Each structure stands twice: as C-alpha cells, then as structure tokens.
Amino acid sequence: MPGNRHEDEFDRELEGWAAARPDAQVSPETRIRIHNKLSASLVPVNPIPSVKSLTLILFLVFAVCAGSLITIGDKAGFRLMTGRQMLIMAAVLVAGGVIFSFSLACRMVPGSRPGFPMALALMFWGAGMIGGIALLFPWRNSTAFVSEGWPCAVTELSIALAAAALFWVLAQRGALFPDADLGAALVGLSSALALLVLQFRCMFQNVLHLFVWHVLTAAVLIGTGALAARFYRGRRIH
C-alpha cells in the first residue's frame, strides 16, 4: 500500500504541474522520477515490416490459397469459359487481391499513408468486376435461378470467412486501428480470393448468376465487414 500512496502523490504532482502556468518548470527530481517510471514501463517489441513487405506477404498468401483451392476443387469454369474470359476475369480478380493487400498493409503500419481511399478502391474494383462480367458473359435467364445460385453463395461465404480469419491473424503483425476501412480491406481481400476460386469452379457462367450470387454476395460481405469493424471501434471508444 505504501507504493500506491507514493504513486498517487506522484500523479497529483504531475496533475498540479500540468495545471500550472505554461512557463512552469519541472523540478530535476520530478524529471528523474518521470524518466524512471517511463523506462520501467517500456517492453521490447518486434519491428513492423514495411508496407511493401506486408503487401507482398499478404498477396503471396492470397495467391497460394487461391491456387491451392482452384487445384483441388471442381474445375467446371475452366471447361465452360473461353480463354479470353478466363484471362480477363483472372486479371480483374487478381487486381483485387493486389489492391486489398496494399490497403490492408497500409492500415497495419502506424503513420503510413492509406494509399488511396477505400471507397475509391471498392469503386474501381467493383466497376472492373461488373464491366467484365457484363461484356464477357451471355445474358440468359434460368428457371432454376435460386436453386442454381445459393450453393455458390454458400461456398463463397465459407471461403471468405476462412480467408478472413487467416488474414486477420496475419494482420495482427501490425498495429491495427479498427475502423470501417480496415474491415472493408480485410473482407475485400478475402472476398476477392473467394470470387477467384468460385469463378473457375462455377458451372453457371452467365451474367445474372454471376452478378447476383457472386458479386452481390461479395458486396454484402464487404459491407458487413466494414460495419462490424466500425461497430467494434465504437464499442472500444465507449
């Protein structure tokens, strides 16, 4: 208890100095006590890698996971898509992996520039996805639209949630500040991975199916991730 009394007296002394005139001087004894107290509270930490290194790590994990899941899963998409469709869709989805890897890496390093606004990243990638699907795939309806589509949504959800857990573990290497942009970057990276796997696995390569059961599902996931991170931040503040 004597130690607590000394701590309280020291805190009151600091509060009194802070409330004093702006030109008030700190006594040498108080400076030494502040120095000793701060020094005792310091603990060694591992340095955070650079944004460039973190981006590369995240994207390599993205590429390895996507390649592994495509290799071991059904490959109906390979048989149904043309070479042009595969090339352009793969480029758009891989670009999403790069964009969200960079966005997440920026938010892992304190004081680093965010690169570009998350809203702009989502708009750019979303426009690429919607434009690519609309121009590359046929517009046809199906009488079994729901029964054909919901398994794709469930598969995408399963892959995205597992990937989000993995990327969250990797993101812990940085100093994270929970906000909507962090949630969108994390779930955006996971959704891009899930969409890439699903594109080469799905047997229903038409615009309506891809829009509703692939892209719309990803949009809902990213929005939910952003809202969840924002809610978590609000809970921490209060």
Describe the protein.
- The structure is a single chain.
- By secondary structure, this protein is mainly alpha-helical.
- It has nine helices and no strands.
- It has two domains: 2-41, no CATH class; 51-237, no CATH class.
- Helices cover 76% and strands 0% of the residues.
- α3 runs antiparallel to α5 (83-106) and α3 runs parallel beside α8.
- The mean pLDDT is 85.
List the helices and strands and how they pair.
Layout: H1 2-19, H2 28-41, H3 51-72, H4 76-80, H5 83-106, H6 118-136, H7 145-171, H8 180-199, H9 207-237
List its salient traits.
238 residues; mainly alpha; 9 helices; 76% helix; elongated
Cα end-to-end separation: 31 Å
* Extended strand count: 0
Overall tally of structural domains: 2
SS-derived structural category: mainly alpha
What is the N-to-C order of secondary-structure elements (H for helix, E for strand)?
HHHHHHHHH
Sheet-strand content, in percent, reads: under 5%
User: Largest sheet, described in full?
Assistant: none
